[in-house]
Design goal:
Blueprint: H1 11-19, H2 28-40, H3 43-47, H4 49-83, H5 93-101, H6 103-135, H7 141-158, H8 160-182, H9 213-220, H10 240-269, H11 272-277, H12 281-285, H13 289-320, H14 328-331, H15 340-356, H16 363-387, H17 401-439, H18 449-465, E1 478-483, H19 487-500, E2 505-511, H20 517-533, E3 537-543, H21 548-558, E4 568-572, H22 580-592, E5 596-601, E6 613-618, H23 635-648, E7 651-658, H24 663-676, E8 683-688, H25 691-697, E9 703-707, H26 714-724, E10 727-732
Parallel strand pairs: 1-2, 1-4, 2-3, 4-5, 6-7, 6-9, 7-8, 9-10
Antiparallel strand pairs: 5-10
Family: Belongs to the SLC12A transporter family.
Membrane topology: Multi-pass membrane protein
Transmembrane segments: 26-47, 59-82, 103-127, 139-157, 169-190, 210-231, 243-267, 287-311, 339-356, 362-383, 404-436
Length: 741
């Protein structure tokens, strides 16, 4: 049966009811549509649209209005799409971006967005004051500003519900203003001939020196930036998935019709000269001027009211996630669900900016922050669409070109309006992002970053598969470290980390056997996490095998098919001989699989010493001492030594042992080798005589790197530790390394 039992909620309704709180109580009309509509129908409609039409002409003005609304409509469509794919929480755009790209990106956009919303309150108050002084020119400007702020703050502090009720009254006032304008159709004042394309004479403030199409566009565009007024209430909506798309898009559609119609009205009622010089055309030509004045005051007041209600919600969400120090205080809610601490801080900032008396210099920056937010919302949807992840299943799907054009449009608009402020705004966002990255924020929910990076890795893997497999210039140390017990890693942790850091990778393979595998797995995971904290890409696994040799051989063969396949086998040679036979077998199998080998023999007394000096032993090259691209079993030893030199900030020395007549040729060979290998700060040393004596007489190092023979005598290798009085690593090339690359 498909019918739902009476009184039984759907699964989606149950989920929404479970996540609902007392504060989530506003519907589509009151919570989204009305505040969005009133914010868009603001001071620019009443005071600046006539100037836009006078400069650009009717067609030019319609083009500017359409272009502005297309950009914000694409953003609204992207916002609608993403809100139907996530359970949006408090914070509106901040919540959307954080749940998609992480808290760091969300916070880097959310902080400027909060400041923009806060400063916008001041701008709207100034706009209200201009309209008020038009009616009462004798009133003191500062007194008007403080009085309006006091009313706004009191309403917001009491409850958002009261603010929405007041907005219903303001909506009625604005409707009355528009009716007063539209009624002039029947009075015969619409008798002017239409100028279809303007000459862009400019503004009276600049003595009509002329402006461009894009300057006029920049004047009108901020009118369209009110689309977040409803989304800012996301944490307090009954059904944000339904309310945000329906309320926002409906408000944009109705606003667009009003702007287009009023543009036609202005082109018909007033001559061009008056349109560009008189900002009060709508008031002067309306059927009843007081109605339009009321609309102007109501529009600016409602915009300020929507912002002073919405901005603290963004701050509350930022504080809840500890985006800034001490944020917990501003995340607290009063008994009625209002973020009153956040309201107090927002009110304080508004009061300070009111006392500055002029925000015109930073007004473009406010618009930039809105545009960056819109751009990021479009970018989030564009990335999600391109990733084709199965979790991206919005119930409000949109074509892929929409978020792409929305992203490009927002970025283009930023630099059209003011390229300097655009760069400043982007720089501030980047600085905040870097700061938050260092904060290491705790993410309370999953986001799509892992999926994004996986998609990039998959794309890179596919591209790499088309390239030659053995790229000597792209060589990195990818270690496979088989482990019998976690205890083995303690002594070699530092060495392994520095053999791999910064761009290599590490695979720890534990041979668990039948006993104690659970505890062993936990220990191995702890070590993997420790390597990760040291910025070493690390993965670990347990092979349930009592046979260490078979486990290692299985790992060698299995991991050859992975993308980050290991290219070096790291083994420890214990002081006892119990495992000598299987170490021989593992070394031979590693050679057979074209793996490099690093066999580590620790000095039981000195261990790695101060990690300040490294010796690399190179076999003598007589009789020719010719340098070629094929150096023999030297490349991996030199690459390993150089990596340790850099990571330890150590002294590196290259040593060879010769008979006395070969000394000059040996030094010449080492000079050529170090020059060709681009190792200018490496010392050269030539020992004369027998190899064992040279080991004992050579300059002391904390680690000696020597070639691993094809059939090594492991007892002899152990003896080198005592002879050199240092730890030793015996190295065998795989053939894929080249120090000369």
């Amino acid at each position: 049966m498909d019918e739902q039992a009476p009184g039984k909620a759907t699964l989606q309704e149950q989920v929404e009811e479970r996540e609902s709180t007392e504060q989530q109580k506003y519907g589509t009309f009151g919570g989204v549509f009305v505040p969005t509509l009133l914010t868009i129908l603001g001071v620019i409609l009443f005071l600046r649209q006539g100037w836009v039409i006078g400069n650009a002409g009717l067609l030019g003005g319609w083009l500017i209005i359409t272009l502005a609304f297309v950009i914000v409509t694409f953003t609204a469509l992207s916002m609608s799409c993403i809100t139907t794919n996530i359970r949006i929480k408090a914070g509106g755009a901040y919540s959307i971006i954080s749940q998609s790209l992480g808290l760091e990106v969300g916070g880097s956009v959310g902080v400027p967005l909060y400041l923009a919303q806060t400063f916008a309150i001041t701008m709207y108050i100034f706009g209200f004051r201009e309209g008020w002084l038009y009616i009462f020119p004798d009133h003191y400007a500062l007194v008007v500003d403080i009085a309006v702020f006091g009313i706004l703050f009191l309403v917001a502090y009491m409850s958002a519900k009261l603010a929405f009720r007041i907005q219903y009254i303001i909506l009625a006032v604005i409707v009355g203003a528009l009716v007063s304008v539209g009624a002039t159709v029947f009075t015969g004042v619409m008798d002017q001939s239409i100028q279809w394309w303007g000459t862009f004479p400019g503004a009276p403030e600049s003595d009509f020196q002329g402006v461009s199409f894009w300057v006029v566009f920049a004047v009108l565009f901020p009118a369209a930036t009110g689309i977040m007024a409803g989304a800012n209430m996301s944490g307090e909506l009954k059904n944000p998935k339904k309310s945000i798309p329906l309320g926002t898009l409906s408000a944009i559609a109705i606003s667009y019709v009003i702007y287009m119609a009023s543009g036609y009205w202005m082109a018909k009622v007033a001559p061009v000269d008056e349109l560009v010089s008189n900002y009060n055309v709508m008031i002067d030509y309306a059927l009843w001027a007081p109605a339009v004045l009321g609309g102007l005051l109501g529009a600016t007041f409602s915009s300020a009211l929507a912002s002073i209600v919405g901005a603290p919600r963004i701050l509350q969400a930022l504080g809840h996630h500890r985006i800034f120090p001490g944020g917990d205080r501003f995340s607290e809610l009063a008994e009625n669900g209002e973020p009153r601490n956040a309201i107090l801080l927002t009110g304080g900032l508004v009061l300070v900016t009111l006392l500055l008396r002029d925000l015109n210099t930073i007004a473009p920056l406010i618009t930039m922050f809105f545009l960056i937010t819109y751009m990021m919302i479009n970018l989030v949807v564009f990335i999600e669409q391109q990733m084709d992840m199965i979790s991206f299943r919005p119930t409000f799907p949109i074509p892929k070109f929409v978020p792409f054009l929305g992203t490009v449009g927002c970025l283009f608009t930023m630099f059209i309006i003011n390229s300097t402020f655009g760069l400043i705004a982007l720089s501030l966002v980047i600085v905040i992002y870097l700061y938050l990255t260092n904060r290491k924020l705790e993410v309370p929910y999953g986001d799509m970053r892992s999926g994004l990076f996986v998609s990039l890795a998959e794309w890179a893997a596919k591209r790499v598969s088309l390239l030659p497999e053995n790229n000597e210039r792209a060589w990195k140390a990818n270690l496979l470290v088989p482990v019998r017990s976690a205890r083995e890693l303690r002594g070699s942790f530092s060495l392994i980390r520095n053999l791999v850091y910064p761009k290599g990778s590490l695979k720890l393979v534990g041979m668990g056997g039948s006993n104690g595998s659970s505890h062993f797995g936990e220990s191995l995971m702890d070590f993997a996490m420790s390597f990760s904290r040291e910025n070493v890409y690390t993965r670990w696994s347990i092979i349930d095998s009592d046979d260490f040799k078979e486990g290692v051989l299985t790992s060698l063969q299995t991991l050859q098919g992975t993308f980050f396949k290991p290219n070096i086998l790291f083994l420890r040679l214990p002081t006892h001989k119990r495992y000598d036979e299987e170490i021989h077998s593992i070394i031979n199998e590693a050679r057979h699989n074209n793996m490099g080998i690093q066999l580590y023999v620790e000095d039981p007394i000195a261990q790695l010493g101060r990690s300040s000096a490294i010796n690399v032993w190179i076999r003598e090259q007589s009789p020719g001492w010719d340098l070629s691209m094929e150096l023999g079993n030297v490349d991996l030893a030199l690459l390993t030594a150089y990596k340790l030199k850099v990571n330890w900030d150590a002294q590196m020395r290259v040593i060879t042992v010769v008979d006395e007549p070969q000394v000059e040729a040996a030094y010449r060979y080492l000079d050529n080798l170090l020059d060709a290998a681009r190792l200018p700060e490496v010392l050269k040393h030539v020992e004369i005589g027998a190899f064992n004596e040279a080991l004992q007489n050579a300059p002391q190092a904390d680690l000696d790197l020597l070639g691993l023979p094809n059939d090594p005598n492991l007892d002899e290798l152990r003896s080198y530790v005592e002879t050199t009085q240092s730890a030793c690593v015996f190295v065998a090339d795989s053939g894929n390394e080249n120090i000369l690359a």
